[in-house]
Design a protein that fits this description.
Number of domains of chain A: 4
CATH superfamily of the largest domain in chain A: Pyruvate-ferredoxin oxidoreductase, PFOR, domain III
Helix content of chain B: 25-40%
CATH topology of the largest domain in chain A: Pyruvate-ferredoxin Oxidoreductase, domain 3
Bound molecules: thiamine diphosphate, iron/sulfur cluster, magnesium ion
Strand content of chain A: 15-25%
Organism (chain A): Hoeflea poritis
CATH class of chain B: Alpha Beta
Strand order of the largest sheet of chain A: 11-10-12-13-15-14-21
CATH topology of chain B: Rossmann fold
Helix content of chain A: 25-40%
Shape of chain B: globular
CATH superfamily of chain B: Thiamin diphosphate (ThDP)-binding fold, Pyr/PP domains
Oligomer: heterodimer
Pfam families (chain A): POR, POR_N
Number of strands of chain A: 23
Largest interface: A-B, 74 and 64 residues
Distance between the termini of chain B: 49 Å
Number of helices of chain A: 21
CATH architecture of the largest domain in chain A: 3-Layer(aba) Sandwich
Protein name (chain A): 2-oxoacid:acceptor oxidoreductase subunit alpha
Shape of chain A: globular
InterPro entries (chain A): 2-oxoacid/accept_OxRdtase_asu, Pyruvate:ferred/Flavod_OxRd, Pyrv/ketoisovalerate_OxRed_cat, Pyrv_Fd/Flavodoxin_OxRdtase_N, Pyrv_flavodox_OxRed_cen, THDP-binding, Transketo_C/PFOR_II
Keywords (chain A): Oxidoreductase
Structural class of chain B: alpha/beta
Number of helices of chain B: 12
Radius of gyration of chain A: 27 Å
Chain lengths: 626, 349
């Protein structure tokens, strides 16, 4: 049998039962690889359940530093009898299957094109440990030990990580290390270690990762830190996976970093609201009153916040909303990832509304963009929605370290203080004196007799006086469009990369690919795969809406543009068509909406397929390009 | 708090101790129907703020949607106001009040705005004991959408359409007492003698102060058969009068022993309650509920301060907010800086 080979380049998947303590053992495994300096990207694939249903943990190791999913599994470690049949079937030919051999493997689970490694996990733990809970928990640690031997993981790193993990609970270190050693020893004694797939810290083909001293963190924690550093003082929320950990992390950091030294009291307020309507109402009220406030939610919450988003847009109140997307509609697949709130967020609410969206692709960007969201919301006096997703928000990603410029000043936008009001000859809340569509606002309590006005969702004139005159309404909403135009020069610009040189291109068509957020990593990888096959593809990573004008140009300069995203309806493609006035046949969707993050292989396959079927038509359409 | 002396004033108008005249508390001209009860509430608010000498710009007015929710335009023109969305003013007020604990928050709502679409937010506002005054201008109908019965319309009450209401009305005052509100009152828009001191007391109270004000809708619910018409309300009124003595003022009136109960608020202001019944205790929820229940059963409209917890602790206290308003904190207080971030990075390697 031909076995899969690969140094620092393979996919491992753990098949577990939810609620059995596998998460921390699996994390230990991934973190050890990270500490060895080998690029790794772990992903939790978990059910909407607290205990009992199947859960998986997929770990991609990639010396080239590809952090997206590749597709396929080279080594499966399965301790869940419920899913074993599917798990066996999902291993690539030439791959490896590790299982608990306390009970013999059923004959129908035998494949002759993969290698099997039985470790009697249950039996070993029953023998070694007395307490039932430990017998259960440490099974996970035993298999990590066995994996360490099979894949050549540095054992002392694992031990260090265990002591970090149990700092303060030293009694637990001993049994954990013992379990680790048992697994390691068993594998050494019974199998030929290491396997042809293995780790070697001396090989690393991703200099960008090595040099920048990457960290391993999830996007939600990074966003929470962004809110701390961005000066957020009010957080209002209603629990919903996968956004909950944003506020959890904000709370944890705020309790540490936001205690007033004089009084020991809090320089922040966190309110668990009765629902998402109230969460957004609290943000609107706090922002109206001059505090930096935010909420975090996911699809169903975004729907509930929609009326308030319209109010904030029209009444011009800053709002920061972190949308950690999951599979909808409604409860959809609540613990699975998608990028499917694009249109709902861009045009959230009734009437004519458009909102500023930010699309982070790494934890580092979650941090930076959250800080920026507060500046943008106050500069533009409008809602800013950061579009993260479950994959980015809840999984650990290798990311460039977070950086902070101590000279950063919060940009509070056009707010008149008492002195400015005193000096101003005249003032109208909705007077566009600067011509950028952004007017000067005042905060309650600023001045005894100047600057008070009435904020309302109803039509008004420039002086903030209620008005149902058609002209007043039209002037106002047209100014809001002008403001949206201004936003284009404030939001992060798209990222363009140098094209990959292709020696003998197989096509004369100019190909382009657009993508954003968590679709980016696997897209970069797919583009490299296709370049090697003779298809040069230029790429642009979208980072914000409204779109920068370079996006229009990018589309116009290419014959076929692939829009790679994770939803059924090609929502980003629709948004581009709509906002950039681009003919639909110019943009070809590359989609995945199965709930598990898109893989490089899927992207490459879909593009190959599309090139087969569409290039003839496109050639006919643009004869000058041939 | 900054105090401001207005430069121009009508020579004949009396001034309060800050030098403001009552006209300094005016708003825009009302566009409500002539005779609408809501306009009397606006006038009572204006007078109450004048009498209590509150600098107008230290008040923030918030409302939902409805005729009642429009009224903040018609009083306190020097205060910022926020006409939010239907039924959701409580959340906006909650956010505003935690953002700046130094302002005085005044919420105006309607019975539709509070008892139907806004019921969820209303009870949660009570539960959090947000430091604000919350007035419901209660006319038993949806004025702005042309007179449909609201959830506070009494069973059997007849609206303009002539149809009898078939559902039990929600009694917001009883609900507020039950839910733990720290200040609950009921009044009548036509009774300025009682409404003004109640508003003053509510604004001095620390925590959530609720006033349910029967406020007839002359256009859709002032007909014979409507239990919230001017005539029906006047006929059935059972008033518990009160006086409000702000902390700065000396007590001039002498009250006969046993005839009244004095409640001292956290800022030293005193409320004198003149009891309708000898054993009414304003600091007992039980008293309030029994009195409300028996009034409801006999079709009476019991008005006055029904319940107060003068020692209540508001949301700012519960959240352990630092004394400096959150909206005034600067970079130094908010941003931990690069050194801390570098050590966080270190912990993630
Ligand atoms: C979400 C939403 N639904 C419906 C309306 C329409 N609407 C406006 S005011 C109102 C009822 C107001 O009744 P109430 O609060 O009692 O105020 P009143 O006019 O009686 O003072 C309704 C249903 C709205 N503005 N928003
Ligand atoms: S409709 Fe009724 S509530 Fe509305 S303004 Fe007229 S009288 Fe007042
Ligand atoms: Mg009403």
């Amino acid at each position: 049998m031909k076995q899969i080979k690969g140094v620092n380049d393979f996919v491992v998947k753990f098949a577990n039962v939810n609620g059995t303590g596998s998460a921390s053992a699996n994390h230990l495994f991934a973190k050890a690889i990270f500490r060895m300096g080998v690029p790794v990207s772990p992903r939790n694939i978990f059910p909407s359940n607290i205990q009992g249903l199947p859960t998986w943990y997929e770990v991609r190791v990639s010396s080239k530093g590809y952090l997206g999913r590749r597709g396929g599994v080279d080594l499966m470690l399965c301790v869940n009898p419920q899913t074993m049949e599917d798990d066996v079937a999902s291993v690539e030919p030439g791959g490896y299957f590790v299982y608990d051999s306390t009970r013999p493997l059923a004959p129908h689970l035998k494949r002759d094109d993969i290698s099997y490694f039985g470790v009697p996990l249950t039996e070993m733990c029953m023998r070694e440990f007395k307490v039932a809970r430990l017998q259960q928990l440490l099974k996970n640690v035993v298999y990590v030990g066995a994996m360490a031997a099979l894949l050549d993981i540095n054992f002392s790193i694992l031990k260090d990580l265990l002591s970090d993990q149990f700092k303060g609970k030293e009694k637990l270190i001993m049994p954990n290390v013992h379990a680790l050693e048992m697994g390691y020893q068993f594998a050494q004694d019974h199998f030929k270690c290491p396997l042809p797939i293995r780790l070697d810290p001396s090989i690393n083909e991703a200099p960008h990762i090595r040099e920048s001293q990457h960290i391993l963190m999830n996007g939600n924690t990074a966003a929470a830190l962004g809110a701390i550093y961005g000066g957020a003082t009010v957080a209002a929320w209603y629990p919903i996976t996968p956004s909950t950990s944003v506020v959890d992390a904000f709370s944890k950091y705020a309790e540490r970093m936001r205690i007033d030294p004089g009084t020991g009291k809090r320089n922040f307020a966190i309110l668990q609201a009765e629902d998402e309507l109230a969460a957004m109402g609290i943000v609107v009220g706090a922002s109206w009153n001059g505090a930096r406030a935010f909420t975090a939610t996911s699809g169903p919450g975004l729907s509930l916040m929609s009326e308030f988003l319209g109010l904030a847009y029209f009444a011009e109140v800053p709002v920061v909303l972190i949308d950690v997307q999951r599979s909808g509609p409604s409860t959809g697949m609540p613990t699975r990832s998608q990028q499917s709130d694009i249109l709902a967020a861009a045009y959230a609410s009734h009437g004519d509304t458009k909102h500023v969206l930010l699309f982070p692709a790494t934890p580092r960007e979650c941090f930076d963009m959250t800080v920026q969201a507060f500046d943008l919301a106050e500069q533009l006096q409008t809602p800013v929605i950061m579009m993260s997703d479950l994959d980015l928000g809840m999984n650990d990603w290798m990311s460039p370290p977070l950086e902070w410029d101590d000279d950063y000043e919060m940009n509070r936008g056009k707010v008149l203080n008492a002195k400015a009001l005193e000096e101003a000859e005249s003032w109208g809340r909705y007077l566009d004196v600067d011509g950028d569509g952004i007017c000067y606002r005042t905060l309650p309590g600023t001045h005894p007799d100047k600057g008070a006005f009435f904020t309302r969702g109803s039509s008004k004139n420039e002086m903030a006086v209620y008005s149902e005159k058609g002209e007043d309404y039209v002037r106002n909403v047209d100014r809001l469009l002008r403001k949206f135009e201004t936003a284009k020069s404030y939001v992060p610009v798209p990222k363009v990369h140098d094209p990959i040189p292709v020696k003998k291109p197989k096509t004369k068509l100019k190909l382009g690919a657009l993508f954003f957020g968590t679709s980016a990593s696997p897209s970069y990888e797919a583009v490299e795969i296709l370049a090697a096959e003779g298809y040069p593809i230029d790429v642009m990573r979208i980072r914000a809406f409204p779109f920068h004008q370079s996006l229009d140009m990018f589309v116009h300069e290419h014959d076929i543009v692939f829009v790679i995203e994770q939803n059924r309806d090609g929502q980003m493609r629709q948004l581009i068509m709509n906002e950039c006035h681009i003919a639909p046949d110019k943009l070809t969707s590359v989609l995945n909406y199965s709930g598990t993050p898109i893989t490089a292989r899927t992207i490459a396959d879909q593009i190959r397929q599309a090139l087969k079927t569409t290039s003839a038509e496109v050639v006919a359409l643009h004869p000058e390009t041939t | 708090m900054s105090y401001y002396k207005p430069k121009f004033r009508h020579p004949s108008l009396p001034e309060n101790e800050l030098g403001y005249t009552v006209a300094d508390y005016d708003g825009a001209v009302s566009t409500l129907c002539a005779g609408c009860g809501h306009d009397s509430i606006s006038a009572a608010i204006r007078n109450a703020c004048f009498l209590s000498a509150i600098p107008p710009h230290r008040i923030a007015k918030l409302s939902g949607i409805g005729c009642s929710s429009k009224t903040p335009t018609y009083f306190l023109g020097r205060s910022h106001g926020f006409n939010s969305v239907h039924g959701r003013m409580p959340s906006v007020a909650t956010g505003a009040s935690v953002a700046n604990r130094d302002l005085i928050y005044l919420g105006i709502s309607g019975d539709g705005d509070t008892a139907s679409i806004g019921m969820g937010q209303f009870v949660h506002l009570i539960r959090r004991n947000v430091n604000m005054t919350y007035i419901v201008a209660n006319n038993g109908c949806y004025g702005l959408t042309k007179g449909q019965d609201s959830a506070t319309a009494d069973l059997g009450s007849v609206g303009k359409s002539g149809v009898k209401n078939q559902f039990d009305g929600i009694d917001l005052a009883s609900l507020a007492v039950l839910q733990g509100a720290s200040f609950v009152a009921r009044s009548f828009s036509g009774d300025k003698e009682q409404l003004e001191p109640l508003i003053r007391a509510a604004m001095a109270h620390k925590g959530f102060a609720f006033i349910d004000v029967v406020s007839p809708c002359v256009t859709f619910a002032n007909n014979v058969g409507s239990t919230k018409s001017y005539a029906a309300t006047r006929d059935n009124l059972e008033v518990m009068p009160l006086d409000f003595v702000p902390m700065r003022e000396e007590i001039r009136t002498q009250y006969k022993e046993g005839s009244s109960q004095a409640v001292t608020l956290h800022d030293g202001s005193i409320i004198h309650l003149h009891k309708a019944s000898k054993d009414y205790k304003a600091d007992s929820r039980e008293s309030a509920l029994i009195a409300l229940q028996s009034a409801n059963e006999t079709g009476k409209v019991l008005t006055g301060l029904l319940y107060i917890d003068p020692n209540s602790q508001d949301l700012n206290h519960t959240l352990e907010l630092a004394p400096k308003p959150l909206n005034s904190l600067g970079k130094d207080e908010l941003c931990p800086g690069s050194r801390v971030l570098n050590s966080i990075n270190e912990g993630l390697r």
